[in-house]
C-alpha cells in the first residue's frame, strides 16, 4: 500500500502538534482581526467534596445548581459542609447553616426560592 504525503504528515506526532498550534494561532488571529480580544483566564482549582454517605442533595432550579449538604465520611464523622455543583465544577459554600448531620432530606421550594432541609441525625441524636 502506498502512503501519501498527507498520511506521513498526520502520522508524525510532532507535525500533528505543530498543526494544532498553527490552527489555534490562526483562529486567534482571525478573532483579533475582527476587533475581538482574546482573554485567557486561569480556572480556580477547587477540590471536590470528600467521599461521603448519608448526605442529601436538591436541585435549585432558579440558580441552576445542585446543592449538597452533610453526610458522614464512613467512619461516623458527620459533615456540616454545603457544596454546589453548577454542571461543570464544585464550589464550597461558606455559610452558617444547620448542624452537621446525616440521613436527612432536602428539597427545593420554588414558591419561596429556598432549599429546605428536614430531619437527620446529628452527633447528639435524631432531629426532626
Judging from the principal axes of the Cα atoms, what is the shape? extended
Provide the residue-averaged pLDDT. 81
Amino-to-carboxy terminus distance = 75 Å
Whole-angstrom Rg: 25 Å
SSE series: HHEEEEEEEE
Helix content: 10-25%
| Biggest sheet details | 4 strands, antiparallel
| Strand runs, count | 8
Strand content: 25-35%
Regions with little confidence, pLDDT below 50 for 5+ residues: none
Strand order of the largest sheet: 1-2-3-4
Number of helices: 2
Number of discrete domains: 2
Could you describe the 3D structure shown?
The protein is of the alpha+beta class and 128 residues long. The chain folds into two domains: 1-41, no CATH class; 56-126, no CATH class. Helix content is 22%, strand content 25%. The chain contains two helices and eight strands. The strands form three sheets. The chain has a four-stranded antiparallel sheet, with no helix packed on it. A two-stranded antiparallel ribbon has the order 5-6. A two-stranded antiparallel ribbon has the order 7-8. A hairpin with a 2-residue loop joins strand 7 (121-122) and strand 8. The longest helix has 21 residues, at 13-33. 11% of the residues are buried. The model has no long low-confidence stretch (mean pLDDT 81).
